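User: Batch of two.

Assistant: Item 1 of 2:
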Amino acid sequence: MAYQHGSGRGGNSRGTRGGQGGQRSNQTNRPFHKRRPSNGGGSRRGKSNHRGAYIHPSKFVNKATISGEETPYEPKHTFADFPFHPALHKNIAHKKYTTPSAIQDQSIPFTLEGRDVLGLANTGTGKTAAFLLPILNNLYSNPVPTSVLILAPTRELAQQIDEQFRDFSYGMKLFSTLLVGGANIDRQMKQLVRRPHVVIGTPGRVMDLIKRKKLNLGQINTVVLDEADRMLDMGFVNDIREIIGLTPNERQTLFFSATITPQIQKLMDEFLNNPEVISVRTADTSERVDQDIVIAATKEEKLEKLQDMLGKDEFEKVLLFGETKFGVQRLSDHLDNSGIPSAAIHGNKSQSQRQRALRAFKNDHVKVLVATDVAARGLDIPNVSHVINFDQPATYEDYVHRIGRTGRGTATGKALTFVPPHK
């Protein structure tokens, strides 16, 4: 199969965001070719992302400009150098962590001192361990119940933080509660009664439990906002303000973000006290990703070319994006029926189903994870070789977040986007 290229480098224009739509159906196993055929664009020529503004195909074409062989960061410390408790050092060694990343190396000493920190770093650079390790060390010395609050933009990222907390805190008798939507709220309320040391959640569910008077933030002495810029992009700014406003003024506040936006700066001014600003950003994720287009006139041609690609050895671990919940499930079912193991993640899935799908993908039980944009933000999935946009995103910003799931850390990745032919 030959890919047909557009021209020009990726841009930075943005369209208008829209919803994810889609209806549940009991006919998800019906073959794609039995559906009403696509007209290849018809009167909507070139506009396959009908939720948002038109994105010119040239914006999906860009060669990676940064080699995976750039000069490695030389840390000032090893993990053994940090003044952690022996129990924590034991768990760090068990995970085979020896040399910290740049954000870990530079932020951990300040966090251990109790300083407020704004950490600016690309995705995939170890931000979670950068804040979890000093927090765990401080908690082990002074295990105050419900004293740490960690906010993340998505259920999946919150779940990943909780998993890392459990790994690093093994045998330390420190406990966390995960508060996210799509999971049983009664079970979460019962867990809060047990007064966990750390609360990890998404702003929406955290606010829900505060309003139900099941979560009291009066003892919080450490607040973490992970992927802060993405939380603001997703419209959580008012919830974040209200949540942090309910915590004591005397606290440590840690913000981690990819960029400083005007809203991030405003939140910093409101809630951070003389913060240490640590920037270890190198280049935009998109500069580490080879980007190209695949031209297909109909849904059937898209499916044929997709299956051809997925049959090639180089497509080792593929994150495949669709537009709607219904369409994503049908696409995953179609791939399974075609002998290509896949899992689906979208808004109609329960939290436990989404977690099972992510585990299957992470552990290489399936080659393809088919997802709506719910998976584009905050997920840390190692070794994704390709991101494929079966349906175009609503905005260029969404596109950048999607392709950011590959080319993480110092690696390079590949992104392909299906577009209709120009007429």
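Item 2 of 2:
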Amino acid sequence: MNQKRHMYSEPFIMFAALFRWFILASLTGIIVGTTTSLFLNLLQYASDKTSHLPFLIQFILLPLGGLITGLLIRYGAPDAAGHGTEAVIMAVHEQNGKINAKVAPIKALATIVTLACGGSAGKEGPCAQIGGAMASSFADIIRLNEQDRKKLVICGISAGFASVFGTPLAGAIFGIEVLAIGGLMYEMILPCFISGITSYEISQSLGISYTYFPFTHNTPFSEILFIKMIGIGLLCGVISWIFIEIFEWFQKTFRLLENYLKWKPALPMIGGFLLSFMILFIPTDYLGLSIPLLDTALEGHSVSYLAFFWKILFVAITLASGFSGGIVTPLFVIGATAGNALGHLFHINPALGAAVGMVAVVASGSNTPISAFVMGVELFGGDVGIFLFTTSVVAYMIIGHRSVYPSQMVSSGKSSWIHIEKNISLEQETNIHISYALLRKLKRKKLKKEEPVMPPQKTS
């Protein structure tokens, strides 16, 4: 009888929980949407002022911007260094969502300096970190427990992502999916969507505009085209892997260099000098957000076949040396330029190649195939949904257990042929190896090949 009573009361309890999180998520969306909109408007103003500077001024601005960024982060909030989403993931997993309130303004200022001075980075990481910091402070004000504070910070990530890209559905899923490979907190989907859509509406009302690329070309499905999409997904996954390898190499190099520096804020300045040297030989298209390059690729116009590689180098140097900014917007540019080039090679519409390439590189580089696919549908329309899904899933699988966010937890491995320890971060996992079952299968094949072939016996 008592069990039946609990069974009948469960819907009322769930309604109360939903109502509570509707209020909390809405308030988080309002707070995050307002603060990220202020940041995005200031960033737009600063970028407009420095977008058409003479080459010599740009040459000087890069190391100067590095110095200012280094000072801001070193003496303001060291947690604001690098690409912000990674720091929020770490806060959720290791600090129960506790984020220093100083991170939000310092991260915003450091990113504005970085991008306005030409540093090659993105704007979504700062929005995610600002969103997480604001949500964490809000949770402390209303005295939420640790578990609920973590959940509210996840809502803050979703709200920040939705605000910067104008993709509330993708933002809702990204905030959950980016935390762990192979694991989704389904109970957070509705709160994250509420915070994302609220933040998006607030940002629109505060003057933030968004660019969408509805794909209007008639692209009927065919088996050949489907196979080509699998090929593009494979290559985009490899490109993401190359980006992570290069980025990690520069991180190790700059950390080694930092050990010899007596004055730590000088490290981003050294990165700025290296970027200045590079633009003597490489076009300045790869500085800043590279939005004109992204637009060119998505409109189907030809871009350099090496554009994705140059962008990888510029981003790796910028973020590894200690500048501030995001990493998903660069993934957009890397994926779109690579996809555009692959579109020409595979004899498909380069605009379609750029769209699926962009989604595939985001899906694989950040291990977020579902949110990348949903984002692609929001940006490009549902007519190319099957191609977006194909490339994003293939790229996500081929990259294996690598990520631009090493603090991601592993909830489930991507293949039974790979043994990987569960519930620890990719950064901590050092024991990724071929599973025993696959080794046994390979050994059996080897023994079979080595068996001597017996000559046929004569019959009487």
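The chain has two domains: 16-205, 223-409.
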